[in-house]
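Input sequence (128 aa), recorded before submission:
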Amino acid sequence: LVANFIVALAKPKKLWIPGGLLMISILVGYVVAMFWGFQSDVVGKIVAITILTLPMLFSGILFAGLLRTDVSVAGGLAANVFGAMCGGLLEYNAMMFGYQSLYLLAIAVYIGALLAMREKPTPALTLD
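Predicted structure, C-alpha cell format:
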C-alpha cells in the first residue's frame, strides 16, 4: 500500500533508484542475519521489522511503477503471480541451505529481473 502511494505521488520515470535500494536492503538484511541478529527488546524489534520489510517496499515500488506504464495490466498481474509462485518454490532452498541463503537467492533473481527490464524497457520507464 505504501509503495502504491509513493508511485502515485512521485510517478517515478526511472527505476534504478528503487532497484538499487532493493539490492541494498536485501544485502543489509543478509549481513544482519549472518553476523549480528536482532535484539529482543523494543528497539531491536522495530529495527528487525524495518530491515525485514524494506525489500517489500522497494519491490512494491518497482512493481507498481512497471504496472503504471504497462500496456497490459492483466499481463503484469499474471507475471506477478507467476513470480510469487516461483519465489515460493525457491523458498524451499531454505530447508537445505538455511534462511540466510534466501537473501543471496533473492539478490540473484532480482538482478536477473532488473537486467531483463533493461533489455526491453517500456517507453516511459527505464532503468537508465
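Checked by second reader. Residues 23 and 107 are 6 Å apart (CA to CA).
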